[in-house]
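Thread: Newbie trying to understand structure tokens

Hi all, I'm a second-year student working on a class project, and my supervisor (Dr. K.) asked me to get a predicted structure for one chain before our next meeting. I've only ever worked with sequences, so writing a 3D structure as a token string is new to me. If someone could post the tokens and maybe explain what I'm looking at, I'd be very grateful. Here's the chain:
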Amino acid sequence: MASPKQHQLQYTEFWQARTGLTFGVERILFNRQSAYQHVQVLQTDAFGRMLTLDGLVMLTERDEFVYHEMISHPALCLLPRPRRVLIVGGGDGGTLREVLRYSEIEQVDLVEIDEVVIEAARTCFPELSIAFDDPRAVCTWPMAWPSCGKRPRPPTIWSSSIRPIRWTLPRGCSASRSTGTAPAS
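---
Reply by user tm_fold:
Sure, no problem. This is what the structure looks like when written as tokens:
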């Protein structure tokens, strides 16, 4: 049996004091510090390209579909006629890609705080970021998000954030707070 390939670079994300997951890194494909977080894309030996934000794994090329399909399809299958969707976060484009598989969807607003995440996705994950080019996709940043009173309310709100969210909505707007799918209240 051949010995495992040794890498000069390794990436480890620890979950407990000494427990974690280590990836062999072949090269760094994207490495930027944004105003909000450190965004990296690493080429790994076993999981393909891997997106990390502030040192936490967000997705890998090999298994991203698990998260993106499960955050999208169950909610859309439960809605009688979904037409509009709001995704908060999701700058990698994977949730957007899955939502746009439904032909009845007329518009998806994706609100991402960090343009560098979208840049990393467009640069390193073309199979995910292709959804940004769909004419039904509207990508904005929080400061550019218009007041709810001027826009039709989406039936479903997704939050792709791993961090707690403080919802600050304009007067007259409401939303359920959770990670994952949540129907607008």
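A couple of things are worth pointing out once you decode it. DSSP finds four helices and ten strands in the chain. Residues 145 and 170 are 10 Å apart (CA to CA). Feel free to ask follow-ups in this thread.
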